[in-house]
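Researcher: First entry.
Model:
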Amino acid sequence: MCALSVATFNKLPLVSSTLESIMDSIQIPLATYVAISLFAVFFFVWLRRKPLPPGPMGWPIIGNMLMMDQLTHRGLAKLAEKYGGILHLKMGFSHTVAVSSPEMARQILQVQDHIFANRPATIAITYLTYNRVDMAFSDYTPFWRQMRKLSVMKLFSRKRAESWDSVRDEVDSMVKSTTINSGTPINLGELVFGLTHDIIYRAAFGSISHEDKEEFIRILQEYTKLFGAFNLADFIPWLGFIDPAGLNTRLPAARAALDRFIDKIIDEHLSKEKKNVNDNVESDMVDEMLVFYSEEGKVNEAEDLQNAIKLTRDNIKAIIMDVMFGGTETVASAIEWALTELMHTPEALKCVQQELADVVGLDRRVEESDFEKLTYFKCVVKETLRMHPPIPVSLHKSSEDTKVAGYHIPKGTRVMVNAFAINRDKNYWEDPNTFNPSRFLKDGAPDFRGSNYEFLPFGSGRRSCPGMQLGLYAMEMALVHLLHCFTWELPDGIKPSEIDMGDVYGLTAPKAIRLVAVPTPRLLCALY
C-alpha cells in the first residue's frame, strides 16, 4: 500500500503538468462555452417571459422615450393603425400601454375597472396636489370613494348646478358684451374661456374681483405649464439632477402662490360663518367643503357622509384646483369647437339656427325649459363631444399584474385610453372624421353616459367625470344663446373651408388658432 502511494505520489508532477497543458489548450474554447451558456440562459428567460402588447422596438435604458412627441391623441391614433387597439411602449423604466379601440376600452373601463381605477402621477403633479390629496389624481382608496360621493352629492349635483345663478348671470353678461360688439370681429376662444372661468370662479369662491381673478389665472397658467413639463426623473429616477425646465425652483414657488391665495379665501369663509348667520345665503364650493373641515383628515366607509370624511386645508386647496382645471378649459374648448365645426359646416349651422327659430321663435330668448325640444341642437352637442372629447386621453394605472386580450400588463403600468381615437373608430362610425350631427338622430345612436364604449367623451367606470352634468349645463347654456341670439359670419371674406381646424394637445385639445367671427343680433327682442 505504501509502495503504491509513493509511486502515485511520484507521478503527481507529471499529472499536474499534463492537466496544465490540457487547460492551456482549451482556454479559448472555455470562454466560448461560458458565452454560449450565458446566451442560452438569457434566451431561455426570454422564451419564458410573459408577452406584452405589440409596439415599436425601444432602445436600452431609455426605451421609446425618443417617441415622446407621439404620445398625443393624434400620435397614438396613428400608432394604433399599425399596432392595433392596444400597444406597448417602454418609457425609461416604466411601462406604458395605449388603448385606442372600443373593445380594449371596455376591458380597461368595465371588465377590469377595479384593477385600472388608479391614476398615474408625475413628480410635479404629486407635489402640486399636496401628495395627491385631491380627487383627480388620488388612487382608488377609501378617501377617493368618499370624495367621489361628496362631489356627486354636494359639489357637482344637478340640483346645485340649477341653483347656480352665476351660470345664467355670466351667460347674460356674455350676450350683453357680444351685442355691444356686434358688427366687429370677436375672438370667440377668449370670450368663452373668460365665461367658463368666471362661472367656475364664482361657483368655487362665491365672489369675483378683477384683481383676484387675474392673480388666479396666472397661478392656473403656471400650474398648467408645470403639469405638462417634461421631467426626466419621471422615467429614469437616478437622472433627476438634470432639470432643464427649472422644476426644482418653479414647483415650490407655484404651490406657495396657491397657498397664499386660497388660504386667504378659506380664512375669509371661516370668519364669515355664513351658515350660522343666514341660512338663505347661497353657499359656494368652499362653504360646502368647510362643513367637512378638520385640522386632521379622516376617512372611513360610513354611509353618513358627515361622519365619513374630514378634509384638511390641503384637501380643499387640491380639490379646488381640480374643479378649476376640470371646469374651465374643458368646457371652453368644447364650446369653441362646436362653433368652429358649425361655421366649418354651414348646412349644420343653418339647421340648428332654423330649429331654434321654429321651436323658440325670434321674439324671446331661449330658456332652459326649451332644451328638451331642441333635438338637433342636442345632436350638435353630442357630435362636438364625439369629435373633440373634453379630455382626449384619460390616464389610468394598473394596481396589480393582469392580462388584457391575452397580453401581460405589469403592475404599475401607465394606461392611456385614447377617447379621441375611440370616438372616431371607422368600425363603429360612418365617415368618422366628418362633422355630421344627424348621425345621432338615428335609432340606437350611442349615448355618452359611459355604457357605449365607442363614444367616451366623459370616460366610463369608477373614474368617469363627476362634473359631467355641470359641464353639459354650462356648455349647452352658453352655446344655445350664442346660436339663438346672433348670426355669425367669418371676417375678411374667409371661406368656411379655410377655417384652421388644427388643435394643440395638452390637458384638453383646444384649437391651435382661436376662432374669430362677426356677430349680428338676430332676435326681435332686446338682448339685455
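Researcher: Second entry.
Model:
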Amino acid sequence: IAGIALCWQGVVQRQVKKFLESSCSLPDFVERYRSLYLRLKNAMEELFGQQTAFVLALRHGFSAALLQLSILRAMHVSERFAQYIDQMIQASAAPSGGVETLQRLQQFLEPMLFLSGLELANTFEHFYRYYLGDRLLAQGNVWLESAVIDQIGSCFPSRFPQQMLKNLSESAELQQEFHLYRLQQLDRHLQEQDQVGRGRRAAGGAGPQPPSSFVLLLPQVMEDWVESEEEAEVQVLVLSPRCWAVSSGCFLDEPAKHFPAELCSYLNHFTQFYSHSQSMYSLSHSKPRRLQWTWLGHGELRLGGWTLHVSTLQMFILLHFNVRVQQLLQESGLSAAVLLHALQPLIADGGPLTCSSEEEPSAGKSSVLQLNQQVASRSLQGDPASLQLLPRQTYLNVDEDAAGTLERKRNFIYCLIVHIMKQEKEMHIDNLVFKVMDSCQKQEAARSPGGGRFGCSTGDVLSCIMHVINKGCVRRNDDNPHIVEFVPEDPATPQKGHAQFSFGRAGSRKDSVADTRCDP
C-alpha cells in the first residue's frame, strides 16, 4: 500500500503543479482549483476508498506542488485564496446567498488545510486578516467567521485571526465594565453630595460655605448622565495593533474637531475609564497602554424614514455637507484616495449627497457637496428602508504593496540568517531563531513611528531558515538535526556561500531572479 500511495502522491503533485503553472492568472483560478481538488478527491475515493495512506498522499501531493511556487507567485495565490473566502462569506450574507454558497465555501476550505505547516501559510494569514478586518468592522457575521477560522485555524501560524475575534469579545466585556464604571462614578458623586448636605444641616448654616465646585457637582453629573441616556448608542472597539492591520493614515488624533460634542463627550469618558483601568491593573514596571482613535468602524444615521449604514468616515462627510471637497481633505487630514473612496457611494445614483460639479470629485476638489433633495423627499414619503452605503473593499494594489513588503521582510531575514551563521559557524536552531527575532525587534524599535511595522513571528523565521537550508547556504548536522551549520564558500559550487532568492515586481508578468550575496 505504501508504494501505491507514493505513486498516487506523485500523480497528484504533477497534476496540481501543471494546473498552477497554466491557470494561476485566470480570473476563475480559485474556482478551477476547487474543482481540481474535488475531481482528485472523488478519483481517490473511487480507486482506493478513504484509507488514511491515500488521504495523506493527496495532501502531500498538493503541498509539494504549492511548495514549488516562486515567492511572488505564492503571494498572488495566497491573496486570491483570501479574496475568494471573503467573496463567499459576503455572498452568504446577501439575500440571494444561501446553502449553495456555503457549500461551495465548505468545499474550498478542505484543500485550504493543505497550507498548514507550509511557508505559504504565513503569506495567506497576512492577506486573510486584511479582508477579515474589513468584514468584522462592517458588522459582519461573527458566527460564520468563527466557524471558518475554527476549521482552517492551522493555516494561521501567528493566530492573528483568532486574536481578532478575541478582541471583539473582549471589547464587548470592556463596554459592560465601562457602563458599570459610569454607574459607580454617579453613585460616588451622589454620596459625596449627600455628605456635603448633611454637614451643612449639622452646622445650622453657620461657618464657611462649601466650595462652589461641590455645589455645582451634582447638577453637572446629572446633566452628563441625562445626556448619556439620550445620546445615540455608541460602542467602542479596542483593537490590538499587533493583529489588526491598521494603516497610520487612518489614525484620528482629535475626534472633537470632527464630530458632535455629544459623541466626543462619550469618547472622553471612555478614555478616562480606560486610563483608570490601565493604571489599576497594569504592572508597575510596564508602560500603560493608550488609546489611538481611528477612522475605522461603522455607524447608522437616520434620513427621514431611512436608515443609512455608513462607515465612520462617511458619517463625518454626511455631518459636514455643503462644504467643498478640498475643505474636507484639510479638516480630516486624510489622503485624497481614502476620502474620495468613502465619498463615491454617497454621491452615486440614489445616494444622499450630490456634487455641484459635473466632473468627478477627484478631478475637481473645489466642487461642493450638497444634500440630494430628491432622495431626502423620498425618505420622508416612502416606507422605512435600510440603505447600505459602506464603501467597497479596495485591494486593487494589495498585490504590489503587500507583496513588496513581504519580499523586503523575507530578504532581510534571509540575509540576517546567513550573516549570523557566518559568525557562529554552527548553532542550535532554537538559538538561531532567538537571535533573528531579537534583531528584528531591534529593527522595529529603531524605525520611526510612521515608518511602518517590521514584526516577524517564529513561523516567519523558521520558514526562512528552511528556505536557506534548501538553497544550500546552511545545512543540518547529520548526527544532530537540531544543529545547523554554515556551508563555507566554495568557488567550485557557486550556490554555497550565496543566498539565491527570487524577486519580482508585481507589475511584471515574469519573475526575475537575482543572485544576492549576503555579506556581513
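Model: Note on the second entry: The chain has a mean pLDDT of 78.
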